[in-house]
Amino acid sequence: MDIYRFIRSRDVAAHCRAIGKTWNTCEMAAIIDRSDLPMAEKHAAWRVLITDYPDMPSIRNIHRISFDSTHKKLEEIIAYNERIWELFQTPENDMLYRFRVQCDDVHYDSDCLFSTYEKALASARDRWEQDGISAVRIFKQFVDDETCERGGIEAVFNDDETLRRVFFTGRAELNEKYCASVGAEDLYYGMFEDNFYIDIPTPFKQGDILAMYKEGLRWPLPVFVLDRLYRDNSEWLEACLRGDRGDGTDLCGWAYYVAQDGLLTANHAMNHDRFVYFKDHLDGKNRLLHYVSLFLKKEIGLPELLTWQCRIMMEHLLENNLQMD
To answer: What DSSP state is assigned to residue 231?
Structure first.
């Protein structure tokens, strides 16, 4: 199996392939879980792991999740997901469907309820296809439950209407109603993705201008300059691999962004297996990132960086009729 195709960033996948990075069966299960591929393709890949790759216990992790057989756990999760999908598709007298579509950087909710998920999905497609749907969420919820406190089931579809994932929402009545029919409570979509830290090397260095890639995302990608990846700290990485620190949410780093007012800001950059090199033209306030990159690479000094920040920020404020606080 070509495990590299499941890595979400083409640049990270190419780097891992070039250095010959390999993972064990449990780690590959997590990489597959992290991918943006449809649920059916993930299940098919997991079945290949079950039939063609050696079984093993869970890798060490801070959540103390432990099982003796990765094969058995994958079989249970596949059955669990398929059962939820079956429940989601089944119309019930006390439950109805509604949709939410993601178009560009905004979302729109349906203004009516539907008796089947197919009707909700068709309505979403017919109403918003011209605007470019990046994802459709269909909610199965109880009638007369305006705040959705009783829980429900949510299914996420890609723009080609393939099922990306399906899961319970909320708690209480719905989970109690179905828990016995879907299996153990600790099985859920994303179990491998969220709980296990996986070492996924990247080619990125300090000062690289990067973007956050996401399958189906149609609006401009968030652009930033990388300062550091947490995995670059060998002690931190070793602790993660021992299961003493980190989980699937900790594949991240620290980066510089340009805020709405044109000022430079720093924050976490999550999911480094989504990072890609930004190769387009930097325009507007994001032009500042070019000089941040040069500064971090020690190609210009701090005075030059501050000069360019002042110039670009003032141009941005004047062009957009913004006021400084």
So the answer is: G
8 Å CB contact between 225 and 256 = yes
Give 67-113 pLDDT, tens digit per residue: 999 999 999 999 888 988 999 999 998 899 999 887 656 677 888 89
**How far is the C-alpha of 169 from the C-alpha of 308, rounded, in Å?**
47
Residue type, 313: M
Per the CB < 8 A criterion, the answer to whether 316 and 285 are in contact is: yes
Q: Is the CB of residue 258 less than 8 Å from the CB of residue 286?
A: yes
Q: What is the DSSP string of 65-128?
A: ---S-HHHHHHHHHHHHHHHHHHHHS--TTEEEEEEEEETTEEEE-SS-BSSHHHHHHHHHHHH
Confidence of residue 172 (pLDDT cuts 50, 70, 90): very low
Question: Do 160 and 121 form a contact (C-beta atoms < 8 A)?
Answer: no
- Angstrom CA distances, 178 to 43, 102, 144, 205, stand at 22, 29, 20, 48
Task: Kindly report the pTM of this predicted structure.
Answer: 0.86
Closest CA to 227 of 296, 278, 305: 296
* Neighbour order of strands in the sheet with 133-142: 106-109, 95-103, 133-142, 152-158, 163-169
Q: What is the pLDDT of residue 177?
A: 62
